[in-house]
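Continuing the series of single-chain predictions for the mutant panel. This is the parent chain; the variants come on the following pages.
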Amino acid sequence: MSGILKSLCVRIAGVVFSLGALFCAESPAKDQIVILVGLDGFRWDYLAKFTPATLSRLAAGGVRAERMVPSFPSLTFPNFYTIATGLRPEHHGIIGNNMFDPRTGESFSLGSKAVGDGHWWEGEPIWVTAQKQGMRAACMFWPGSEAEICGMRPWQWKPFDHDVSPEARVATVLGWMALPAAERPRLVTLYFHEADTAGHHFGPDAPETAAAVEQCDKAIAQLIEGVHKLNLDEVANLVIVSDHGMTEVSPDRTIVLSDLVKPAGVQVDFSGAVAGLRPPPELVGEVYAALAAKHDHFQVYRREEVPKRLHFRDHPRIPPIVLMADEGWTIVKRPLLGVAARAVFLRATHGFDPALPSMGATFIGSGPAFKRGAVIPPFDNVEIYALVCKILGLNPAANDGGNRLAEAVLAPGR
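Parent structure:
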């Protein structure tokens, strides 16, 4: 998220660099750089709750949204890939962190080899758009960046490694930015998991989550300092986004599928805040009727009846029956038996209705392309792709967003 605004003063490691310098001269789009920073699980209200110094300065000096609305389901892979493509999950095919494709009989899950298999990733991510139009792109982690999509990969990319420190991730990005202008990537992605990991294990209000937010904030300060030292303040823009929010859950608030669905052969494609069931075709009506008769703390839909506002009908990977838990409840396959099962149950999660405030995500735009000191109302995250294209002067691929966000946040003449 490196938009080093020519009017921001941030002192980091004893170095004072002018944030005001970020907003100085107007550079043509052909010179602009975008660093797209993904803060996993960074809920929209963490800025006010934890007051991280660097992110707060960027938000105050650039543009921030009251809240960014994720796509359904409010999970990591669907939403970071929506941000990258401008397509909703039903159009880019990543409909969950775990899913099944009935056309091939294959399954997809986090950490599996499927993550690097391009046939799962539909649509055109921003790094492919950039490279198709002769612009170098580099990805320091981002869902989809490990796969060959549309016949190409980013110029530079790294396979996700949970143990690579935030400081090391930033150092890699700064190494790319230090290349001569003709070799330097104009689009860079940078991803941090820390706030999400802490939020899951300790809850959104915990001191451990506050510490994780601070860790991310310090890494972004390191990024800003490095961009300043490279004299890129007048061309570098930070687009800082998160994928979803976080809310507390409990092992005492579970919906047990094995207690609700008895017919044999019902495949559970995924579970959690949202669950997908794939019964044999002849049993879909029976299973749906059983769930509809018993629903308590959840809603159940046939795929074709999922509320239109959720945009979750039009892909074969979406199973025939979709369950949505009420906020704070979790759908599990089997009862949580014993102390050990309850002990490992996460303290908080996401995946719920994107309209819930607790699922709201963060957006901050900072750099020479952005307005200064602006706050905008909530918007859908499908708008980010077209915004990045606009800053970089790219022709966007077909997407579900539009130019509303760009018009609201970019400085006049951009």
